[in-house]
């Protein structure tokens, strides 16, 4: 039996779809209040199991008869106020999954993030050999994913059969305007600014395909960057704008401007109670140049990634 944590999430639901399309039965974890996405609703090959990864007693029964575990569940936020929850879910919750995998002799594929990787050295691309260097000012999400990944390495040292994937920014039409889809809404609504930053992006379908290939491969104790292409935000915003027949951003938001913006929005949130659209961490990441190397996963699995331009076209056409 295959167990998928975070089954109702953006990545988890796509993974479940691909597994069941192959005729494989899946047991998927969901929280009590989570809604099952239309993508996998009424799927007879999915057994839904209500459990919280932070409640080990709930999880024990879910592992009955399980031989493979895809750990997709995570909490994502770049708001400093969510630090406690980020650590609780992404570190403590992952630790619970690791312990049960060891106890039940399950093979694990853990979804980490490029946020857990090191920074590029002297303009080089970031690879799997890079490790995050502790930074007291680092955003809590990156730290939580790094510490969560360290739990997996701890398990591997204790005999766990596991492999780790580090996806870059995952995009896809089923995200809608949430998560990474917020970028598309921003441009669709006529956002006028771009930042001098860059990052890697990848289609959700490719991340799920890579995960299945790596789970089925005779590989253990390795990590893999899952990313299609690196792109500057200015070029990304332009392609999205073209997809929406919108005006592309033409003004560069300088770091000092972003500094004023996140401070002003943070102050405003005190009075409005609404989450600020820009935080200190999002401002910092938007002007960071991060380039990721995907050679390892291509060489060891033979996967070919969907071109980013094609992904953007598909997403914008769907969201129109």
TrEMBL record:
Highest taxon listed in the record's lineage: Bacteria
GO molecular function: aldehyde dehydrogenase (NAD+) activity
InterPro entries on file: Epimerase_deHydtase, NAD(P)-bd_dom_sf, NAD(P)-dependent_oxidoreduct
Signal peptide: none
Domain NAD-dependent epimerase/dehydratase: 2-225
Residue ranges the record marks as coiled coil: none
GO CC annotation terms, alphabetical: cytoplasm
Protein name in the entry: NAD-dependent epimerase/dehydratase family protein
